[in-house]
Amino acid sequence: MLVTLNEVMKIAEEKKIAVGSFNTPNLESLQAVIGAAEELNLPVIIQFAQCHEPWIPLDLIGPIMVEAAKKTSVPVCVHLDHGETLEYLEKALEIGFTGIMYDGSILPYEENLQNTKKAVAMAAKTGASVEAELGSMGKRESGSGEAGGDDTKIYTDPGQAKEFVEASGIDALACSFGTTHGIYLTTPKLDFEVVKKVRDLTGNIPVVMHGGSGVSREDYHKAIQAGVRKINYFTYMDKSGGNAAAEYLKSLNTEEPVFFSSISMAARDAMKENVKAAMKMFALE
Length: 285
Fold this sequence. Notes:
Layout: H1 5-15, E1 19-23, H2 27-40, E2 44-49, H3 58-70, E3 76-83, H4 86-95, E4 99-102, H5 109-124, E5 129-134, H6 158-168, E6 172-175, H7 192-202, E7 207-209, H8 217-226, E8 228-233, H9 235-251, H10 260-282
Parallel strand pairs: 1-2, 1-8, 2-3, 3-4, 4-5, 5-6, 6-7, 7-8
């Protein structure tokens, strides 16, 4: 069933868990995530980031995501991840997305705030929920990123977060507390006090963890106990699909024909298992 980000966050808060938010920029990943959620009977967020546009246009995959969510037996939010312009956010809302993220984290504070307020006003017209970001996970949105090695990281200031949340009217806040987008080359050192203080000062706004792939089970659980309610996860899921496709090709002898459909199914099945494992961790299982 199609629900808003707010509705999913309420479930997460009631159960004191985090809901997994998985990018689905192709049909295989969409099938993997929906299949995993239904098999585990857990709510889920499927999302598309603006930086995925070169892979497949939002105009094409967006309506498919919305229709898939409507047909599921579990609560599913269709969310725009890292929307960089208000025009792109508007496009997602027109398609029927029930959550949008405006990412103005690299902008000056006041400009980020003003644009976020505009995003909240836009979303109110369709009943969608809004996530915003304060602080920065670093300059890399995808690909390799070394935790702790990126000097563009800016940790979220809890006091500023209180002002930002109250002034903007957002529904969820992505905080920077030590994670990094992409592949971890060193063990991340997470500051859970940032999450706790943001929650305390903002009246327990749901905190979003970006750069969630590759974090240890122990740190996932600590983050959730601190107040994280949404965990973005894509890189390691995507990697699992790629590895499965490579292994499938290795399994063929030189005389066997290679069919793309078989490769994509191997990738899909591997991603589903990876997502299931992640969802169980986020549900504290």
